[in-house]
Structure formats: C-alpha cells, structure tokens
Amino acid sequence: MKNILFITFLVLSISGCYTGKCDGFFDNQILSISYTPYYTEKWYIDPNNPNSKMLYGTEGYGASAKKNKHNYIVKYFNYKDCQEVPNEKVYKIIQPENVFWYIKENDKYIKKFKIWEELEVALIQECYNDGFCKTYRTEGAKQDYFLNKKDLTLVK
Known about the structure:
This protein is mainly beta. The protein has 2 domains: 2-84, no CATH class; 88-154. 13% of the residues lie in helices and 36% in strands. The strands form 3 sheets. The chain has a 5-stranded antiparallel sheet with strand order 10-9-8-5-11, with no helix packed on it. It has a 4-stranded antiparallel sheet with strand order 1-2-3-4, with no helix packed on it. It has a two-stranded antiparallel ribbon with strand order 6-7. The longest helix is centred in the N-terminal third of the chain and has 13 residues, at 2-14. The N and C termini lie far apart (52 Å).
C-alpha cells in the first residue's frame, strides 16, 4: 500500500500537478504561470469574457499566449513571500535591454547591473521624488534594489 501511494504521489508531482513555490497542490483555477526570480505571474480564466478559456498545446506558450493575455485576469505575486501585489504597483519596463538595477548607498544611487532582458514588469513598493522606485525584495536578497522611474510605465 505504501508503494502504491508513493508511486501515485511521484507521478502526480512529475506530471505538473504541483505547480510551484507560491501555489497550493492541485490549484485548478490557474491557467498559466510564469516564474522569474523576481515575481510570479498567474493567469486566471475571466468568467465575464467568453474568449477566456483553457489554452491547449502551443497556444499556451510564448508569443501565442501573449496575443491572448488580454482575455484573462492576470495577477502578480512577489516571489520572496508569495504575496499578491496590487495592480497599481506593477510597472511595465519600457526598454529592458537598457535598464539597470541600482542600489542606494549614503543617499546616492549606484548602478549595479543590467536587468534580465526577458523581464517584462517590475513590482514596485514605492516611488520617490528623486525619480527612483524601490522594488520588492527577491528571495535571498540582502539589500534593496531600485529602478529609474523614467524606465517604467504603469501596467493597466
């Protein structure tokens, strides 16, 4: 009996029923999940939109999926502690290939490193009058990171 339970659990885990760090086991309300080291993006079926339905095969990945993204309820979660981030704190990165993370030392912003080009949005805790915005902390981060507000636009 133990072997049967173990094999069943193993098969379900490998088959993708366990969806990840920020999800419960068998979370069947989530249509699509995108993980980055900075945030988790989840798509939910919108009951008020007739075009919001399950995506099968390759239509659920890459450029095909992005064409249909507007049909779904999209929510963002901070990767560190899996807390949902309100839409007014989700910003689109305008040109990711030219954007850098900054750290703050003695009230001065220091360019640290270029952001990952595939990163589409940034989760912002707070923007300041000096033109920089503090991001949510990532897992294992020992300091706060900042982005220049001119590189961001609010996601609608």
